[in-house]
Amino acid sequence: MLRRAIDLFNEQGYDGTSMGDLARELGFSKSAIYHHVPSKTHLLSQALDEALDGLTEVLDEASREVPGATAYDRLRRAVRLSVAVLVDHQPAVTLLLRVRGNSEVEVAALRRRRDLDARFAALVREAVEEGSLRSDVPPALVSRLLFGMVNSLVEWHRPGGAVDAGQLSDAITTIAFDGLALGRGSSGHQS
């Protein structure tokens, strides 16, 4: 039921989708839907939590100190794992990216997204402080640009297409980090 609700929210918009639409799509009566789910808002909350919980797990893992792992390594891993979350939960992430704060559930989701952005920027800051990333671009901007690159996948990536999650992760981390890392990029100059 949640999968189809997410699809309908993405196709018709959350506000443009009724519980009647979902019932028709699933071949149930409206009362049967309400037997399993208290409200459309509940479905939205579950969908947004799916995406946000996956991203939170990524940052929890990337924030853990691992012997021998630098901040740069953890940041790079966070980007790779974020791509995997997006690919594995693409419909829910797509819905999350369309949230504008029109309800309490959406406001809460936006708050969680801002918290994730701040945590991601903190990883960037740590990599800058250890000397692995250039310092002339503010960490919050780097974070937004990296997330922007990952999030853009919802616009063109199709599950089962020619490019799989591993290829996407490799491409994004190579492009992003070879362009950001000191001494690792093709230009070889430091700022």
Automatic annotation (TrEMBL):
Task: Give the source's domain of life in one word.
Answer: Bacteria
Against InterPro entries, the record matches this protein to:
Homeodomain-like_sf, HTH-type_TetR-like_transc_reg, HTH_TetR, KstR2_TetR_C, Tet_transcr_reg_TetR-rel_C_sf
Q: Which residues bind DNA?
A: 18-37
Which keywords does the record carry?
DNA-binding, Transcription, Transcription regulation
Q: What Pfam families would the database entry show?
A: TetR_C_24, TetR_N
Residue span(s) of domain HTH tetR-type:
1-55
Q: Is DNA-binding tagged as a keyword? A: yes
UniProt name for this protein = TetR/AcrR family transcriptional regulator
State the organism of origin. Pedococcus aerophilus
